[in-house]
Write a structure and sequence with these properties.
With about 350 residues, this protein is of the alpha/beta class. About 25% of the residues lie in helices and about 15% in strands. The chain folds into two domains: about 200 residues, Vaccinia Virus protein VP39 (Rossmann fold); about 130 residues, DNA Methylase, subunit A, domain 2 (DNA Methylase, Chain A, domain 2), CATH 3.90.120.
């Protein structure tokens, strides 16, 4: 059995993927109380330590495992400081950027068989690659064979173009090879077409699916996983003038399609980010689901923002996964998460080495 410890767990995307692959999570660490509540709700029986990781002694929470079992520490230290979209505090003065040292401390203390360190794509090139080299050297000094890569979620059954940096280490001399890509990609329409039609600001905790499970796509069937209704169909309420703007934007288009007379509140419209007011393309994977409410991501066919369940589907969270906290906190949890199906593919590959 592969036992895991999930640090900086967030809502638990990595843990869901680990469990899908056949691993068992021993405990999780998450400072944010809403994300910790979400994790606790969806991982029945797994202890969640809701505290600053600096205060935690991992030896106090780790239980012995069998001689033939293996231990993995996994997680993604808060990544806003490494993100290429963060032009304000993208340097080592950002306190978030030193949290990787706590990850290293856990590994040095517990000496797991494996570790999986996850972060934004920008981590790879942060400070011209010196940070990546520094982290890698820390693990190699502890006796780990380390491999890393930029992986693309849409290559592993996630209906979303999302690049992540993943570093995997093993202390038994195994040189980890990342999993092969899937032959087909999943589109937005395959991911969400069976979910209920909604309106701007609609907040429905439970609604019927639009079609039977047999008529749903293979991906939708996987996500339903026995669920009888669509849960958390929560849509942020946008102002009427925002909805009016949506009407001019076709699939794949962004704010540039909005008439000038509807954008007069912007001092300089050309300063808008290309991801703002983006309508998703039905027959392609989604753009990145980050802060999708702030970015005004638009449903491919309906003039509204994405619902919680739609965004969760595009991140590959199963329909029985329930998020806790206010709508704003839920949206942030979804945007910050590692897609479970991406995590599943990597954990399955790790488990292959243990056979």
């Amino acid at each position: 059995m592969l036992y895991g410890i999930d640090i900086f767990s967030g809502a638990g995307g990595l843990s869901i993927g680990a469990e899908m692959a056949g691993a068992q999570v021993m405990f999780a660490v998450e400072k944010d109380k809403y994300a910790a509540e979400t994790y606790r709700c969806n991982h029945n029986g797994t202890p969640v330590i809701c505290d600053d990781i600096h205060n935690i002694d991992p030896l106090q929470h780790t239980t012995p495992i069998g001689a033939n079992d293996q231990l993995i520490i996994f997680g993604g230290p808060p990544c806003q400081g490494f993100s290429t979209s963060n032009t304000v505090t993208r340097n080592m003065q950002n306190p978030n950027n030193s949290l990787f040292e706590e990850f290293v401390r856990f590994v040095a203390t517990l000496k797991p068989d494996w570790f999986l360190f996850e972060n934004v794509e920008g981590f790879y090139r942060f400070e011209k690659g010196t940070m990546r080299a520094k982290v890698k050297a820390c693990f190699e000094k502890l006796g780990y064979t380390v491999n890393d890569a930029i992986v693309i979620a849409s290559d592993y059954g996630v209906p979303q173009h999302r690049n992540r940096f993943i570093m995997v280490g093993n202390r038994n001399g195994i040189s980890f090879q990342f999993p092969d890509k899937h032959k087909t990609t999943i589109t937005v329409n395959e991911a969400i077409a069976d979910l209920p039609e909604l309106s701007n600001g609609q907040m429905e905790d439970s609604l019927p699916y639009k079609c039977s499970v047999k008529k749903a796509s293979a991906y939708a069937q996987l996500m339903r996983n026995g669920s009888q209704t669509s849960k958390q169909n929560f849509v942020s309420k946008n102002a009427d003038y925002v909805i009016e703007r949506y009407k001019y934007i076709g699939q794949g288009q962004n704010w540039k399609a909005i008439p000038e007379n509807l954008m007069t509140n912007y001092k300089d419209k050309n300063q808008c980010h290309s991801g703002i007011y983006k309508r998703l393309v039905a027959d392609k994977p989604s753009v990145v689901i980050s802060n999708y409410r702030k970015n005004m991501l638009i449903h491919p066919f309906q003039d509204r923002g994405l619902s919680v369940r739609e965004a969760a589907r595009l991140q590959s969270f199963p329909d029985d996964f329930i998020f806790k906290g206010s709508l704003m906190h839920i949206q942030q949890q979804i945007g910050n998460a590692v897609p479970p199906l991406l995590a599943k593919a990597v954990f399955e590959k790790i488990l292959e080495y243990g056979k």
